[in-house]
Amino acid sequence: MDSPMALAALRVYQEALAQRAPELRPEVRESGTSLLDPAPFTAARTVAESVAINQVDGPAVIVSSSGMATGGRVLHHLRRLLPSSRNAVVIVGFAARGTRARDLVDGVRAVKMFGEYVAVRAEVVDVPGFSAHADADEAVAWLRDAPPPHATYLVHGEPGAAETLRNRLDDELGWTAAVPRSGERVLVR
Q: How far apart are CA 80 and CA 93, in angstroms?
């Protein structure tokens, strides 16, 4: 497992289980901390441990995440694994247009990383149903109890979806919301 953010999130859940946090579902709370034990995976917490993963010879599963393959440790693994048809790369969750992950899902034959093109011969599998992003209904429900801000800027997501959410924030919550253009600057106070 080579994702510092995922390991940090795992630690939060492990602590919640250890403390038997009331926010957890009862069946999860009663299961104990072994439910989230990363074994048999090795957790790569340091750069050296991450680099060592690329020295593994033979079958392996590498769990690594990074903003739709736009940066981070996953790029080193992709550079090594993509050129071989013996490998599979599984893209789990939503992959936005304009990202390396979307390009891989769409079947490109080469991707640019570290200033060079890397051939894509590995099998690429798309599993979009595991996205950790809230949908618009969940986001609006969560925001409903928040005090209205002076302005809301929607800076994440596909342009059409962001515009639709902007309209919902305006119509349902009465909030002033905007979808800034790429490169637009706003003053946040």
A: 22
CA distance 162 to 153: 10
Instruction: Please write down the long-range contacts of 103-106, taking CB distance under 8 Å and 24 or more positions apart.
Output: 104/69
Can you name the residues that pair with 118 across neighbouring β-strands?
111
Q: What is the pLDDT of residues 9-50, one digit of tens each?
A: 888 888 888 888 888 888 877 776 677 777 777 888 888 988
Classify each residue of 70-109 as buried b or exposed e, where b means 16 or more C-beta atoms within 10 Å of its C-beta. Answer: eebbbbbbbeebbeeeebebebbebbeeebbbbbbbeeee
d(CA 143, CA 149): 10
pTM recorded for the entire structure: 0.67
